[in-house]
Amino acid sequence: MNPDRRQLLRWGAAAAAGAALAPGFRLIELAQARSPQEAASRLQRWGLLIDITKCGECDACVTACGEENGWTGHGRAETDPQWIRTVHLRDRRTGYAQTLPLMCQHCEHPPCVDVCPTGASFKRADGIVLVDKHTCIGCRYCVMACPYGARSFVHEAVSGQKPDVPRGKGTVESCTLCVHRVDRGETPACVEACNRDGGGAMAFGDLNDASSTIHRRLVNEPSSQIRADLALNTGVRYQGL
Amino acid sequence: MRAVAAILAAVLTAAAHADAPRFKIERGEACVLPTAEMRRDHMKVLLRQRDLTMHQGIREPRFSLKNCVDCHASRATGSVLGKDGFCSSCHTYAAVSIDCFECHSPQRRAQAAAKP
Prior knowledge:
- The complex is a heterodimer of chains A (about 240) and B (about 120).
- With about 240 residues, chain A is α+β, with helices and mostly antiparallel strands.
- Chain A has one domain (about 40-240): Alpha-Beta Plaits (2-Layer Sandwich), CATH 3.30.70.20.
- Helices cover about 25% and strands about 20% of the residues of chain A.
- In chain A, the strands form five sheets. Chain A has a three-stranded mixed sheet with strand order 10-3-11.
- In chain A, helix 2 (about 60-70) packs across helix 6.
- Chain B is mainly α.
- Chain B has one domain (about 20-115).
- Chain B is about 55% helix and about 0% strand.
- Chain B has six helices and no strands.
- The longest helix of chain B has 22 residues, at about 35-55.
- Chain B is globular, with a radius of gyration of 18 Å.
- Chain B starts with a helix and ends with a helix.
- The interface between A and B is medium-sized, with 28 and 21 residues.
């Protein structure tokens, strides 16, 4: 069974489970902020939908990510950490230019997890791909394996970390989909900033929840994955690419 | 002989406590577990909570490192590290290095947020 078919079946199952038995009564509550005692659930799969036709010449998402997660550059592009970046595309023949934000795509089949020798790179039950820095040995296999260039190695000593986002030299890091905010029932910092200061291009939600806006849009509107040929089934989808 | 032993014992006890770590507990009369248990097993409790939070997203505040820091950070410096810091004073005395704060913030949350 190919990954797309499997995903479709999973959405179908989630939709069936979420179907109302009676008004206001559900078999399984799907989109709800978890209590702090509750583990992340396989019923959910967090993802982003980015409409790049609305994405202009701003870097609200990148700035917001840096502020939220406490990563900053030292003016050394070769070694500075970067969790999200803006990518400029240009059609050589027509000159048509596009800008899009690129970060960890939170794949269903993440190559970074496959290659990690210590199990530090892992996928949480709700589809968020993370690095457990307690077991990361800094080998950077995952940096090489990621087709999106989404991971960074922390080359320099870090101080003044955010209490919610521990970071340290000698480990690999990448977009966490603002997992600390998601666990509180909030949206990632980039999405919040894009809808406040940017073009409103980014949407966050549960791809499995049939009643969510992001699910409805993915069902009814065209969207694409970057490097769909790799069949990684990314959690971050794009429109207008 | 018995008197000599008693004096020796008294001297040794005094010596053992002379440079014992001094720290303030700062906030709260009761910790999340009885003091004796925390002294012996705090690292086990933290390690278990670490894996639960990291891998399953269980963020119960009771045993979280942030919760420890929030109560025990010094009122003066806002940190659990430093000369008389709650964590560092004992760990320096016992010569056990702590790696937690290589990555985690040693500052109380309100103070960490106020910093740029």
